[in-house]
Amino acid sequence: MTEQIAFAALSITLVGSALAVVLSKNLFHAVLWLALALTGTAGVFLMLDAEFLAAVQLLLYAGGIITIVVFAIVVTERLIGERLTQTNMRLGGGALVSAVLFGFILVVVGRQPLPATRPEMPGDLTRAIGQAVLTRYVLPFELLAVLMLTGLLGAIYFARPED
Amino acid sequence: MGLQPYLLLSAAVFCIGLFGVTTRRNTIGILLGIELMMNAVNINLVAFARYTAVASGMVFTVFTICITVTEAALGLAIVILLFRVRRTVMADHLDLLKG
């Protein structure tokens, strides 16, 4: 019973803040709502027994991404004076496409026989993730390190001061 | 509680993110929508991993989180560069490639 109540509260927080992210007029407020949505996702991860991922989510997303997005807005947005409208003229079309996709997923998920109970997790999940990363998935892990290094070097190159 | 509620929650967040991507004019707003969609995908991965008791799904979530962070850093660097060149970040004003 507690599980259902917690899930319902998390769902309302997550969906509500996600709606606020896409609908709020002020981009700065949208980022703050995104921080709430990402924190709510960390809560969902906790409900799925993924403590490590919840911590990573809070550190990297809610900490890192929000900070750089706020910096980007401060650099590019006129925070005082008249504001430009933030949405285009395709609100109806976008809503229609999203609603159709959601309905489609609803039908597909409704038809599938999905597990109703969760199996016992064998052992410590964080330990299992660490072992999988450094044994079976070591090549993707190293490739990911190269990708992140290249990506961040590229970001520095793009944003370098003009000379 | 079953797997289904998690899938529906992630579907809802994904579709809201898609709505944001298609309707925002500001490129940073579009990036925020993409973050929401990535987040929904992560919920799906973790939920399936938990309900099948396989740690691989969680490993892939770590990978997607890292890739999303890189993508956000690069995307925002491009936005700042665009702003420097064109003085605007509105997607409908960025028509450099229009013939």
DSSP strand content of chain A: under 5%
At CATH's second level, what is the architecture of the largest domain in chain A?
Up-down Bundle
Overall pLDDT score of chain A: 86
Point out poorly predicted stretches of chain B: none
Helix-strand category of chain A: mainly alpha
Compute the separation of the termini of chain B in Å: 55 Å
What is the N-to-C order of secondary-structure elements of chain B (H for helix, E for strand)? Answer: HHH
Alpha plus pi helix count of chain A: 6
Number of domains of chain A: 2
For this structure, what is the CATH class of chain B?
Answer: Mainly Alpha
List low-pLDDT spans of chain A.
none
The CATH class name of the largest domain in chain A reads Mainly Alpha
Describe this protein's structure.
The complex is a heterodimer of chains A (163) and B (99). With 163 residues, chain A is mainly alpha-helical. Chain A has two domains: 1-81, NADH-ubiquinone/plastoquinone oxidoreductase chain 6, subunit NuoJ (Four Helix Bundle (Hemerythrin (Met), subunit A), Up-down Bundle); 124-163. Chain A has six helices and no strands. The model of chain A has no long low-confidence stretch (mean pLDDT 86). The model of chain B has no long low-confidence stretch (mean pLDDT 88). Chain B is mostly helical. Helices cover 78% and strands 0% of the residues of chain B. The interface between A and B is large, with 86 and 70 residues.
